[in-house]
Design brief:
Blueprint lengths: L1 E4 L5 E4 L4 E6 L3 E5 L4 E4 L3 H21 L1
Antiparallel strand pairs: 1-2, 3-4, 4-5
C-alpha cells in the first residue's frame, strides 16, 4: 500500500494494485478499479514513484524468501 495525502490533509493508504488511472491537474484524482475516485495532493509522478518503490519492496522481500 502507498501512503498519500487527501486534499484536506488526511493521510490515507491506497492499495497500489487497485489503482486504475491517475488524472493530474492541480491535485491528482486516482480512480480505483471499483470506480471510486480519490483526490490527493501528490502529483501523478510522485504516485507513480511510490507505487514503483512499493512493488520493488515486495519483489525484494519475495526474492529473499
Amino acid at each position: 500500500m502507498v501512503k498519500l495525502t487527501k486534499i484536506d490533509g488526511t493521510e490515507i493508504y491506497v492499495n497500489a494494485d487497485e489503482i486504475e488511472s491517475i488524472e493530474s491537474a492541480f491535485n491528482s484524482t486516482i480512480t480505483l478499479r471499483s470506480s471510486r475516485k480519490i483526490v490527493v495532493k501528490e502529483s501523478a509522478e510522485e504516485i507513480k514513484e511510490k507505487v514503483i518503490e512499493y512493488k520493488r519492496q515486495i519483489f525484494l522481500k519475495n526474492k529473499a524468501e
